[in-house]
């Protein structure tokens, strides 16, 4: 169960009769720590998880964090768990204004109505001020990045219109994606193949195991990740980052347990796929106009970041990167690729040579990567032992659910 399901069950959004069933009171307020804004019982709940191994701890971490989202929902924060004012969560303004409104509805006193309007006005001003500060900081931090600045101003001045409703279902998307990949694989099978060797040379260095990560490094990675939230997360990612220092011992155990054992927890290998219309002007009833976006749990992305850093360092230190590679490489991008090609074209022209440029656009490139070929390539690069087993575990047993309207489908295997 994700945090969104928990919030719905808690009554923070709406009950069965369409109205909020919970009335904020002293009981829900007492469960919040005034300094942190989170339940006082959180450390005690998490301590139960520490008695298990990495896989079991990860399974228990979600239920241990559910009370955090539940308390925020009961406290009146039904909008994805919490608001931030001065980088500290607060629930006071909406709770107080709600009480004043109920008091005025009951007694019809002018003083209560004035108090309600005053609190509501103050809360509105606080929200406006928070938005202003948020975008001001966002613009200042993106001052050196024209693309980010353009995206910020474009989203503010020309917000995209919501897409037209579509009758497509989760089954339709799941069938379309599966059949599309199968058709591409069939074309691969019809092509002639040449035997290739991925045998490891004696001079190739080796990486037999992944190194455990220090808590300080893990904290830095956790707080630097983009806090995108997936329905699989027990609480919103931004909230997890806020209390990451309290969760650090447990997150470290889960991450290091996976690195040392060469095993990726099963819950980390689940994804939610949301189809997004490629362009708003396209026909929403045409299923080919959608591109799938895969959502992964926040903790799984932290684990991936740790392994990616270690693999990149290994390839860089041993000069195993392709010299012409620009994608997925530090300090490289499409700009460096274009500059390299342009330089070679200029050099060929100066030498009075002819140049032929062949460009390939691969359909569903990531979805059609052969796992056996990938693992064989990793082995040829010196990845062996527990490190190789980790990548094999990462690729094995993955599954996804298609959520066009946030209605989950059965888990489908991802081969």
UniProtKB/TrEMBL annotation:
Span of domain Reverse transcriptase: 257-415
A Pfam family hit: RVT_1
Annotated spans, Disordered: 1-36
Listed name of the protein: Reverse transcriptase domain-containing protein
Gene source species: Hemibagrus guttatus
């Amino acid at each position: 169960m994700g945090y969104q399901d928990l919030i719905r069950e808690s009554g923070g959004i709406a009950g069965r009769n369409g109205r909020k069933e919970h009335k904020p009171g002293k009981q829900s307020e007492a469960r919040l720590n005034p300094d942190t804004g989170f339940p006082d019982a959180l450390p005690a709940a998490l301590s139960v998880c520490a008695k298990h191994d990495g896989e079991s701890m990860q399974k228990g971490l979600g239920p241990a964090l559910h009370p955090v989202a539940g308390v925020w929902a009961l406290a009146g924060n039904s909008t994805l768990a919490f608001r931030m004012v001065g980088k500290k969560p607060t629930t006071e303004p909406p709770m107080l204004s709600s009480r004043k409104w109920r008091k005025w509805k009951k007694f019809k006193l002018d003083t209560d109505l004035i108090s309600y309007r005053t609190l509501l006005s103050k809360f509105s001003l606080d929200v406006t001020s928070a938005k202003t500060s948020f975008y001001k900081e966002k613009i200042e931090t993106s001052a050196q990045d024209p693309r980010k600045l353009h995206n910020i101003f474009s989203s503010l001045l020309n917000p995209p219109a919501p897409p037209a409703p579509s009758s497509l279902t989760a089954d339709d998307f799941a069938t379309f994606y599966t059949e599309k990949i199968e058709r591409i694989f069939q074309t691969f099978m019809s092509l002639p193949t040449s035997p290739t060797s991925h045998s490891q040379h004696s001079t190739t260095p080796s990486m037999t195991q992944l190194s455990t990560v220090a808590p300080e490094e893990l904290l830095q990675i956790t707080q630097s990740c983009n806090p995108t939230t997936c329905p699989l997360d027990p609480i919103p990612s931004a909230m997890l980052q806020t209390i990451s220092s309290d969760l650090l011992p447990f997150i470290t155990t889960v991450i290091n347990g996976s690195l040392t054992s060469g095993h990726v927890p099963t819950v980390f290998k689940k994804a939610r796929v949301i189809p997004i219309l490629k362009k708003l002007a396209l026909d929403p009833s045409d299923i080919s106009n959608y591109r799938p976006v895969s959502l992964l749990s926040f903790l799984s992305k932290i684990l991936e970041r740790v392994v990616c850093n270690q693999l990149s360092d290994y390839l860089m230190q041993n000069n195993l990167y392709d010299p012409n590679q620009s994608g997925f490489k530090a300090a490289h991008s499409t700009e460096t690729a274009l500059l390299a090609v342009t330089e070679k074209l200029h050099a060929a022209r100066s030498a009075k040579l002819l140049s032929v440029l062949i460009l390939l656009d691969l359909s569903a490139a990531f979805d059609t990567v052969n796992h056996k070929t990938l693992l064989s390539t990793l082995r040829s690069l010196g990845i062996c032992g527990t490190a190789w087993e980790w990548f094999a575990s990462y690729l094995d047993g993955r599954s996804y659910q298609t959520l066009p309207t946030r209605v989950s489908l059965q888990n489908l295997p991802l081969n």
